[in-house]
Amino acid sequence: MVDILYVEDEASLGMIVSDSLESHGFLVRHKENGRDALAAFQHKKPDIVVLDVMMPLMDGFTVAEEIRRVDTTVPILFLTALTQTEDVVKGFHLGANDYVRKPFKIEELVVRIEALTRRTAQLAVAKFCYIGAYILDTQKSTLSHGEKQEKLSFREAELLRRLFEHKDRVVPREEIIKAYWNDDTYFTGRSLDVFISRIRKYLAADERIKITNIRGVGYMLTID
User: Fold this and answer.
1) Rounded to two decimals, what is the model's pTM?
2) Cα–Cα–Cα angle for 203, 187, 179, nearest 5°?
């Protein structure tokens, strides 16, 4: 049974969503503020954190940041009424894996939760990827080269892992979008190329590693 730490300060909404998730077979621990959420996380690590952004005592962005200080693997899904792109981008940079805009349908939330927890379970199998002169730690989201270590965002680490696991093969752009951005084309159209550029810079010390943009198709990682 998937253990969900659900954080929502509006009591009536929290009760409705909790009951709905439990009816779909999830175990739900509902907290109404960020401080209680962190305490619950420290007491027992959940399988996923479903996190409102605007909350008293400690907002969702701060909660996510604190969680990522100690754990880089647990999926974090934001529930947010904020619609500005910069707010969404901020959430991802803090380590969020996905977001759902309010108001939402419970069926959409269930699908997102199932996708994130399934993906995390699959990732637990392989911890290290040896990419040329680099070592990617998929659990800590770190990229090491000699004594130098770079901290990646969860999405950067996941994208690099996917490219490496499909080495010498093209990974379709649509496949990446569906896997890591849930087909949110407004956001991904602006950001996917930026993520690829960042990853190229992280790998720049090993000239054998190349990430090629196959125009109109996707990306391919090769190591000469």
Assistant:
1) 0.59
2) 65
